[in-house]
Amino acid sequence: MINITYHKEGDYLIPDLIMEKSNSTCNVGKYGHLRNNFLKEHKRGLYTELMINGTLTDHLIDIDKTATARVNTIINKLAKAENVNEDLKSREQLAWVQAMNNIKNRAEEIVFNELIYV
């Protein structure tokens, strides 16, 4: 159970919230920032709960690591399935870049729907 203290400002009681230092030394990456923005705009209750518990940063770092690993896995699987490899890269660089960008965009869209925007 968390005990929250309050202080009075005018006619209002304001909670005394202090963010605890995160145990993690990692930075929040691209997917962590996207998750943070989503929570702020669409999941205010969960965002507030994570802030009060002091676990928001850990949550964002975990989401970022998981999303990055998942995107890389999906990219590798799609590239292998679509035969986008070093041979294509050496023969037709522009076609390889286009194919890899397409694959990366699809992989990120999957991860956004699975992890970030839920």
Furnish the topology, listing elements before pairings.
Layout: E1 6-9, E2 12-15, H1 30-42, H2 44-53, H3 56-81, H4 86-91, H5 93-116
Antiparallel strand pairs: 1-2
Helix pairs in contact: 1-2, 1-3, 3-5
Describe this protein's structure.
The protein is mainly alpha-helical and 118 residues long. It has one domain (20-116). The protein is built from five helices and two strands, in the order ββααααα. Strands 1-2 form a two-stranded antiparallel sheet. β1 (6-9) and β2 (12-15) form a beta hairpin. The protein is rod-shaped, with a radius of gyration of 21 Å.
In short:
The protein has 118 residues and is mainly alpha-helical.
**Neighbour order of strands in the largest sheet:** 1-2
Helical/strand content category: mainly alpha
Name the overall outline: rod-shaped
Topology order in helix (H) and strand (E) letters:
EEHHHHH
Residue fraction in strands = 5-15%
Q: How many strands appear in the DSSP assignment?
A: 2
Radius of gyration: 21 Å
Give the number of helices. 5
Q: Fraction of residues in helices? A: 55-70%
Question: What is the rounded distance between the termini?
Answer: 27 Å
